[in-house]
Amino acid sequence: MKMSKQFPLNALRVFEAAARLGSFTKAGEELGMTQTAVSYQIKLIEENVGEPLFLRRPRQVALTEVGQRLAPKVTEAFEMLQDAVSSARGDVDAALLIHSTATFASQWLARNIGSFQLAHPNIAVRLTASNNIVDISKEAADVAIRSGRGAWPGLDSHRLMRVEFTPMLSPALAETIGGVHEPRDLLKLRIIGPDDPWWLLWFRAAGVPDPDLAGRPVSRLGAQSFEARAAMAGQGVAILTPEFYVDDVALGRLYQPFDLRCRDGQDYWLAHLHARRNVPKIRAFRDWILAELNPDAA
């Protein structure tokens, strides 16, 4: 029997899009097909498999258990086919789309990505920075650098950096109160982001269970890197990840008054779809960044 009769590739492509997008309508828009045509192709693949692959509900569809088992394997198969075609025609200039948290992008990735580009000159890099968690199965991103605990369904996660935090401020600001000698001295100064849960965790670990931060003006700046800039400018004390600011400490722009560092269990991770783990550009970036930040895991 011919392969085309055993495996209806067109129907599999439609199934992959509908499963990834969670919608027959969106799958049709992506593939340039009517919703009726999408439904027909889904019916063909269900007849071929012998099981329903979607639960039809008003205005939405959901994968059945069989569909959930099939979808990632079909996605991986099409990725492999795309990679094979790209290799055959010498298409090595495909862009690597990276989504990263703003702080990691500005404090580490932007400073180091040049070495990746030197090692892989045929891979163009496009970087988007945002603290929103994007769904890389649906958004334009090949890999994501996230802060969290590393457990995201459907994704492979690789720890990049253990996140620790501690108060940091400019030496000039510390001098305005005669120096910072004990943790309570920090409360004499403006606290940047007093509603950040890191503050309460750190003060409690430092033996100050009642820092009374609730009444202070809230001034969250949206990203740790912005809060660090405010601290360098003497606008207050920020709670930061010191690994990002080694150069600023060396240049006297920031000062870490206490050795105590705390953790909340959330670290930086590289995440990508399990089905795309062997795509060459993703594999190249994964190997590079793990070797840079976590050599034991590379």
UniProtKB/TrEMBL annotation:
UniProt xrefs under Gene3D superfamilies = Periplasmic binding protein-like II (3.40.190.10), Winged helix-like DNA-binding domain superfamily/Winged helix DNA-binding domain (1.10.10.10)
Q: InterPro entries, from UniProt?
A: LysR-type_TF_proteobact-type, LysR_HTH_N, LysR_subst-bd, WH-like_DNA-bd_sf, WH_DNA-bd_sf
List, alphabetically, the Pfam families matched: HTH_1, LysR_substrate
Protein keywords: DNA-binding, Transcription, Transcription regulation
Q: Does the keyword Cell division feature in the UniProt annotation?
A: no
User: Its domain of life?
Assistant: Bacteria
Query: Where is the HTH lysR-type domain positioned along the sequence?
Result: 7-64
Matching PANTHER family: HTH-TYPE TRANSCRIPTIONAL REGULATOR (PTHR30537), HTH-TYPE TRANSCRIPTIONAL REGULATOR TRPI (PTHR30537:SF74)
To which protein family does this belong? Belongs to the LysR transcriptional regulatory family.
**Protein name as annotated:** LysR substrate-binding domain-containing protein
Record the organism: Sinorhizobium numidicum
